[in-house]
């Protein structure tokens, strides 16, 4: 009988989830003012950082899957879009594709959550219900708020990459987006407490 994979320690989980992003940030900061010639083509620091980020993220997801036996829908979708847009960025030597990637990710998730609400199916509850026990009304409110947040983040990403410098966008992606998500869930602590349940009813 196969062994059930052990849950990851908090430190290892954080390292696997945010490590690739930190690697991207460090690679960009080191290479942002440099040009690298590979295969007869010149690449700027942003493209080089993308070359580093894509395989590191793939390796991180592989390790996550080997250690836990599963990947979330968001992790799989993110990996597919990173490989797709990262590949286009390197292949066409055009950083705009990689910068658009968060827009597509957040827009897709906003659309999925919005469609679920329209169909009266709370997919967020189905995915996270065991991790965060909460009454159905609470999940409906959280889903509405999260859909709006994802939509707002998609718009914010478009504004930042189209109007600001590469460094500003990298800082926004590396630090701004995770901080916004953290603040969002902290701001909803009262909702979790009010609608929380141990599922023993």
Cα-based radius of gyration, to the nearest Å: 19 Å
Total number of distinct structural domains: 2
Beta-strand level of the residues, as a percent range?
under 5%
Distance between the termini: 33 Å
How many helical stretches? 8
Largest sheet, strands/sense/barrel: 2 strands, antiparallel
H-E order: HEEHHHHHHH
Overall, the morphology is globular
Helix content bin: over 70%
Secondary-structure-based class equals mainly alpha
Query: Which residue ranges are poorly predicted, with pLDDT under 50 across at least 5 consecutive positions?
Result: none
Strand order of the largest sheet: 1-2
Tell me how many strands there are: 2
Average pLDDT level: 88
Transmembrane segments: 12-31, 43-65, 71-92, 104-123, 143-161, 168-187
Keywords: Cell inner membrane, Cell membrane, Membrane, Transmembrane, Transmembrane helix
Family: Belongs to the YciB family.
Pfam family, one: IspA
Descriptive report:
The mean pLDDT is about 90. The protein is globular, with a radius of gyration of 19 Å. Helix 4 runs antiparallel to helix 6 (about 135-165). With about 200 residues, the chain is mainly α. The chain has eight helices and two strands, in the order αββααααααα. Strands 1-2 form a two-stranded antiparallel sheet. The chain has two domains: about 1-90, no CATH class; about 95-200, no CATH class. The longest helix has 28 residues, at about 135-165. It has helices at about 10-30, 45-70, 75-90, 95-120, 125-130, 135-165, 165-185, 190-195; strands spanning about 35-40, 40-45.
